[in-house]
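Notebook, p. 212. Picked up where the previous page left off. The plan for this session was modest: take the two constructs that came back from the sequencing core last week, fold each one, and keep the raw output in the notebook itself so nobody has to go hunting through shared drives later. Recording the first one now, exactly as returned: residue sequence, then the structure token string.
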Amino acid sequence: MELVSLVRLEGVSKHVLLPDDSRLDILRGIDFAVAAGDHVAIVGRSGSGKSTLLNLLGMLDAPSEGAVWFRGEPVRRMRRGRLDRLRGRNVGFVFQQFNLLAGRTALENVEMPLGYAWGRAFWRRRRTATEMLERVGLGHRIESTPEQMSGGEQQRVAIARALVRRPALILADEPTGALDVETGATVMELLDEIASEADAALVTITHDLHVAARARRHYRLDAGVLTPFDLGAAAPSGASDPAAPELAASVAESESGAPAESGAQTESDRGTPAESGAPAEGERDAPAEAAEARNPSEAQGAASVAVTTREDDAERAAVAS
């Protein structure tokens, strides 16, 4: 008996018409499938279409050509109301800029998705949200607002919010781009651990090869074309890893243009106001390529790679001396 993929893309392309009536191709002929319990990393330079692909996987957008299937059923045949309910129950999103509600406590932020639940899940929403915050190590911060938390703590709240309804599919868009390297590694370890416990599929969009190496399958998105890449069983060691020269080359352009400081926050920043940086609602729905060109997550994700590369160079220099 053939196993049914959780989400599957068949011959998917995405394009938009520009003001001069020319056509901009964002994604081209993509075939891609994710099964329950899978962990996939997709790496690509800025403007390659990564966020657009994530929106298609999360059923937030529709392809110009091809089909998206969820649990063996074509998404295009679903009515909007049913599609919204399906996405709310089965898909969890983790963003680079956290997108927490300012002025609301960690508990209120995590509890919010359960406000759309039914029956027992709705009436137990406060207890469920508290348990999830305790699971990510923030049981002592449930009454803190985003402005009172460090970047790492905010991202853990965002992870708790994404997972509180036990989704079957977790989509992480540059989840460590606004964090320093050490905190980012801790956040990814937590995300991977919780996804494994729930047998959920995890798809991570990233510039950072350290983050990509944690996945079991690896893809590169270049000029709208998605191709598999075998990173092997190599441990996260960045662009210096001999197993990853071609993959590293796919983000070389982003590395060379990255600023010296990434603006990352560490756990020691506790008490320092941090930007939640939630994008305007319309920005995610704008023509995908134009939105990605403006998306600050791409630049900050590139900065994360640049910082990692400099640290690797420093370590090699110390060994050489």
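Okay, moving on. Second construct, recorded in the same format:
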Amino acid sequence: MAKEKKIIIKTSLVMILFSSFFLLLISTIYYYFFINENLVFSQQQNKYQDPKFVNQENTAGLHIMEIKYQETNFGELDIFGIKKIYPTKKSGFEWFMNNSDPESDPYLHNYKRIVKNEDGSYNIGERSRMGVYSEDGIGYPKRNMETYNFTELSKRGYWYKPTDWKNVEITGEYLYKGGEGPGITHYARSEDQSTINNGCGASSYKLNIHFDGTSSISKEQTHPKHSIIPMKKNPFGKLDKDWFRFKGIIYNLPNGTVKLESWLDPFLNNSWIKIAEYQDKGGWGKDGNKCQGKDDHIITWGSPTATFRWDDVLIDFRSLSVREIQPPVISDVIS
């Protein structure tokens, strides 16, 4: 009897060990073949990123991209200690907010009054169209450009001067303080957001971050009409409690298309994650013909100002910047 019990115990132990080994094997296979394949590791970001939170759907004009970062430059910090996603162009113009006295800066414009908070951040009220002039953009003749013809603008490459903001990385630190407004927008490639000149001066790409935890990208060919890419959720949820950083990036590619990227650093620790991206390869927008261009005309020209926008919301801000960047080398991934 005792011998039979020993045999049963030994058999049970063997079965338990075998079951544990089998479960471990199944878990390992599941991780490597089902979970691990859905994780994208970026050595430059030093962070795992779930692509379901990145705008990589095969919608019109959108293509999954393989980005070849310049390893020696990626990760440099700006004067505020904020990581640059892309390096500044050689001899390119950089603008950094004067955190001590922003109103003394001739490049910062289109605001009524900037109020300094006790913590050193700033507030300008519930509406912002605060702009930053390009290197030679101060005093540009707004609403009186040489041409509003999109075909001509594509050829010359700028609204005002060759030094207009074109390939840019627009960065800010923000804290939601209250209000009904949806969020913050970084945009460029516009000289005037109005219906004057048939609204053609408003041509722009707009990168939007929303306090409800979503983001979107839009294209404006004529004011006030927008073509909007569907909203995407970021992996961190709502952004209405703590400080966060947001970047809107716009740059041209050699094939005549435009790449748009939104990046979020939710903890102010330079753990930047790309939360949305889009490549305008045409087929997006239908109002370009109102400005002597194609219906879906791609906006490839620079502008004498870049803008930080919000409406119906109180926001504290600091450490704003706009930089002329060196775009990465990119190759399409067939999908």
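Notes on construct two before I forget. The mean pLDDT is 83.
Flagging for discussion at group meeting.
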